[in-house]
């Protein structure tokens, strides 16, 4: 079984990074979360209810729907915040006027138990890569235009996400009670998303990763 | 695998399609109410949440949907459509989008009804939730209020897209294959809003934060089958009125992880007499949809104008307070941006923090409410005919209101924008009208209002002066001219300096 991979690309201004990422990640998670499973006898289970919440963006002319779960929102915000901090740190290191590029990956996986001494395998079945191009804008007029443009772009991305999801391609089979933790993240109180992990990578405009850039900077400093 | 559905599967599938259609309508209409929707997740299944999603049921919307379906189900050649349109206060209307729930002949015989179809329908509803926030009508619906309202219409049968104008776009929300056909959900939306830009904004554009209320006597005289997308939910104590209507069927979703042949899906029918929806928001009741048809018949009452104000979410207030209160717009009803003169009845109701009960709602529709900037009915005043933005609030309106015992002095609304606050203070000073009685303002000239000296509004002023022209002294022509002159005079200057070279050397020596 091959892992399904989808790439989304957006160009945003520095202060829009948070909200743009939240909008897209939450839209994906809305479709990849179910209510809590309650297993009963005879191998049946019932599913809890997922609530939804409208969120308005402050720096983008855009609104999106997310799952009503403060716990999940906290986790996502923390991850997106770290990504944004890295993006900003790179921009500061490179100086003003440099555009930066980063990529957030939202990976849905299944755990496969292995025998000792091997650890459990994580087999991804769907990976969403969101490439972010951070631009610098000169004046308020450009920012206003950017607000609207990014809003439209995010709308297009939401339509893309929905299109992919509604192809109804591979989804993990509904697990038995003993296997549920291999498929779903059961740590939250109110909802149950599929097991996922968020990773990110930052690059500068030349396409080299941050680690390479930092290494070069340090070398140059020491060379003086 | 049997090619025909078992009777139980057929029954389940029909039920799924029926409730999917009803939930689809709810999602679409609620997305056009103009407010942010917020429902709570629940880890234990309540049994009434179809497709495991917390989607509230507005009774009137369900009623309209069932009326349109008339006992039938969406099927091949029988589509269910929800048409969203915009109607201005002047009576012009425009279709914005049409959502279509269709079915085609492509069948998926092997699919499991009670499990796969159900889950895919749930996924499709989530996609619908996401897509309804993305089409252009969403932003328009969030800003509905005095200038225009959003209406919906449900019909069954052939899809009609001619009202969407040229160049309309289509977005497909999703498809779900079933053994009897493939369900498709899509939206066709208008892209050409030219009518809006030429007609809607011909008159003076409102200054930021202020919304001019100049309803004519019968703003929605020909509503017909259209229904406004603005509701106030009944108070939650009114158990009999809220949530699920009496004969709604309950779905208890129970799935099996054992092989398909043993799949158990328990669906039970229950009569729910009262059910308190576990929601965090309070949507607004169908005030005007019930009230308009009645209000039309009483033109004789002086000063009484059907007032959309208490029902509408407040735009300026929303912009300011949206972050703070994402789920409870009711608290801000007194601070409606028009600074409306809601009578004390409405104000006190709102300050309770509760939404209006249906009984009160029905009473409200028969109570005259006079907004601050509302014209006396019968006189059709348009701002296009007047220079000043607030010239509509003629002294004669004030006289009538002063004599009108029904008009209570409204509370001073919380300032929803700084300009708003300054409006009131200046208005009371200049016009001589005591601020406590009402908010009629006369001869008011706020900064950047229409003026003979500088005829532009704040927005135009800002845009014009944001990019000032270059200073004359920094233009290229001037600098290039002077440089040419400099170059020409260089040889002469050099000759002079060479002549006086001794003097310069002596000067340099003194410095050392």
TrEMBL record, chain A:
Any GO BP annotation: autophagosome assembly
GO CC, one annotated term: phagophore assembly site
Domain of life: Eukaryota
An example Gene Ontology molecular-function term: protein kinase binding
Primary localization class, coarse: other
UniProt-annotated location(s): Preautophagosomal structure
Record's keyword terms, sorted: Autophagy
UniProt record similarity statement: Belongs to the ATG101 family.
UniProt-recorded name of the protein: Autophagy-related protein 101
Gene that specifies this protein: ATG101
Automatic annotation (TrEMBL), chain B:
Compartmental location: Cytoplasm, Cytosol; Preautophagosomal structure
Biased composition (Polar residues): 413-428
Disordered: region residues: 322-360, 403-435
Entry superkingdom: Eukaryota
UniProt domain Autophagy-related protein 13 N-terminal: residue ranges: 95-195
Broad class of where this protein is predominantly found: cytoplasm
Family, per entry: Belongs to the ATG13 family. Metazoan subfamily.
The protein, known as: Autophagy-related protein 13
Originating organism: Esox lucius (Northern pike)
Gene name for this UniProt entry: ATG13
